[in-house]
Amino acid sequence: MGAFLDEIDLLVRSRHAVLYVVTHEEGRLEDLLFGQAHDQGKKLFGWTADRGLYEYLGHHEPGKGIADMKPPTEVLREIQRTGTPAIYLLKDFPAFFDDPAVVRQLRDLAQDLRHKYQTVILSSPKLALPAELDKDVAVVDLPLPDAGELLELLRAVCVELRRSDKEAVALSKGDADALVQAAQGLTLSEAENAFAKAAVTRGVLDRKDVELVLSEKQQVIRKSGLLEFHPPDTSMQDVGGLEALKQWLLRRGKAWEPKARAFGLPAPRGVLLLGVPGCGKSLTARAVAQAWKLPLLHLDLGRVFGGLLGSSEENMRKALRVADGVAPAVLWIDEIEKGLAGGMSSGQSDSGTAIRVFGTLLTWMQERAGEVFVVATANRIEQLPPELLRRGRFDEIFFVDLPDACARAEILGIHLRKRRREPSGFDLGGLAKASEGYSGAELESCVQEALFAAYDNGRDLENEDLLAAIDEVTPLSVTSAEDIARLRAWASTRARSADPSPEEVGEARG
Ligand SMILES: Nc1ncnc2c1ncn2[C@@H]1O[C@H](COP(=O)(O)OP(=O)(O)OP(=O)(O)O)[C@@H](O)[C@H]1O
Ligand SMILES: [Mg+2]
To answer: What secondary structure does DSSP assign to 337-401, as a single string?
Structure first.
């Protein structure tokens, strides 16, 4: 957990004396802070509204209370008074933020302690920082446990299991690493539960439990409500056209190899897919994870902003923390602009909150070390904040246009094959010609309609059915021609074409 302590250290050295750590893992925080205080020759004090102020004498060893000081204003006054180099962990302190005296005192303290060796840490599972404290209190997330911490936990669990039954554990070093990797993205106590559950299911903890721990993790993450593991159900072969994009992705995929890092390549960060509805943006997002053999996490922005799950800023931080924990992974943010618009207009959150939540996402995208690849999709450019498009957030921005004739033939082929029809039995060239201006989604529904018609007529699918279905549809490119033209004009200077074949360029622009 070096990174977290380094961040705290950096904040302290840049004269931030009051920090707000958001975490459910209080015990782990105590442990980390005790180690830090010990290394720096400082004392660690704790405070709760119930116990008052006490000193930690060892790991997990809060000593006797040294003073009553249960009222929050008293403990703050005490910290201000003494000059002992120390870290003060004030638990659930944010619960007192609605008292103006407390807020005022904290602000004064933040200024006073800038030149002293005292650090105040407010901890709470929730993030609720009043605007008055924005400048004086730095918010830090306690990241989820890293592989080292989880391995330590697994060791402790194994020792415990072996104590009652010598045969209860059958793990090689490799198996243990696989279990640890499966548990990444969980808190320590969640991981402990998952390991324990896995151990009792078949009476032994072994390699086969990797699956169990993985599915336990998926459930835990689903319960958090914002992120969802997406099953790997789409491959690059399911995506027709978009050759430039596919090639770019396959090339970037190689940058995940450790060898590539040694070679000097940065970890891939993300891609933004903009474009015409129904042309394969979401489809490609799902295919990336499978192509790279990484887990796919879907971030539901609508829910982040929905307000049903509590503070949206906290939700966003939580989701990003889990994504960081699961890394390496692909984080899919679908229709990124809709989440934003929802946040702006929903009654629950004012536009200030929406901007802050989005800021959280942007900062994370800018500052994270890598290992989480973001695939964001959007089709309404007016709603995209310019900051999102700035260099550095994404490795590349692609514009996904309507498929050209060649891509249309490919897409028809893909969907025929999905429905167990051999594409070579149809005149794909002719069908592609007849469907100029059709999106991938529209082509798919033509295949579907044609199948219905054939079934209705009591025979197998024929080329004529497909032609008739194509003839029936008025594509979006006709009904929304202006929107699409605007999108193209906008993208021509800002995004790279996902399929820049000469034919397509001629067809689309002409
Ligand atoms: N390039 C394509 N190749 C194969 N199938 C496609 C393609 N584009 C679209 N489809 C089909 O249409 C469906 C909808 O496409 P998708 O969800 O990827 O569109 P989108 O670009 O994300 O649109 P929106 O902007 O409306 O979200 C896909 O699930 C797939 O079946
Ligand atoms: Mg989509």
So the answer is: HHHHHHHHH-SSS-HHHHHHHHHHHHHHHHH--SSEEEEEEES-GGGS-HHHHSBTTBSEEEEE-
Nearest atom in ligand 1 to the alpha carbon of residue 414 is: 4
Q: What is the pLDDT of residues 349-358, one digit of tens each?
A: 456 777 778 8
Rounded distance between C-alpha atoms, residue 365 and residue 396, angstroms: 13
Smallest CA-to-CA distance from 3 within 137, 138, 124, 147 is with: 147
Residues 6 and 85 in one domain: yes
**What's the chain's average pLDDT?**
87
36 lines ligand 1 (CB under 6 A): no
Substitution site in 301, 379, 444 for ligand 1 pocket (most atoms within 8 Å of beta carbon): 444
Looking up tokens 């089709």 gives 379
pLDDT tens readout for residues 263-277: 988 888 999 999 999
Alpha carbon of 365 to ligand 2 centroid (Å)? 21
Closest C-alpha to 109, from 93, 124, 95, 125: 93
Q: CA angle at residue 233 from 441 to 213, to 5 degrees? A: 150
**What CATH number does the domain containing 441 carry?**
1.10.8.60
- The reply to whether 113 and 10 lie within a common domain is yes
Classify 481 as helix, strand or coil.
Answer: helix
Q: Which residues sit opposite 191 in a β-bridge?
A: none
> Does the structure show a pLDDT above 60 at 138?
yes
Give the type of residue at 317.
Answer: R
Please, which pLDDT band fits residue 281 given cuts at 50, 70 and 90?
A: very high
Residue nearest to atom 30 of ligand 1 (CA): 441
Which pLDDT value is given to residue 341?
63
- Kindly tell me if the per-residue pLDDT of 507 is higher than 50: no
Residue 151: domain span: 147-224
Q: Which of 236, 273, 282, 480 best tests ligand 1's pocket when mutated (most atoms within 8 Å of CB)?
A: 282
250 shares a domain with 354: yes
440 lines ligand 1 (CB under 6 A): yes
Q: State if residue 279 touches ligand 1 by the CB under 6 angstroms criterion.
A: yes
Query: Does 306 have pLDDT greater than 70?
Result: no
Using DSSP bridges, classify how beta strands 296-299 and 396-400 pair: parallel, antiparallel or unpaired: unpaired
pLDDT digits (tens, 9 = 90+) for 312-327: 788 888 889 889 888 8
Identify the residue with better confidence: 346 or 466.
Answer: 466
Mean pLDDT to the nearest integer, 209-216: 89
Q: Are 470 and 247 in contact (CB under 8 A)?
A: no
Cβ atoms of residues 241 and 406 within 8 Å? yes
Is residue 201 within 8 Å of 212, Cβ to Cβ?
A: yes
Q: Are 50 and 70 in a shared domain?
A: yes
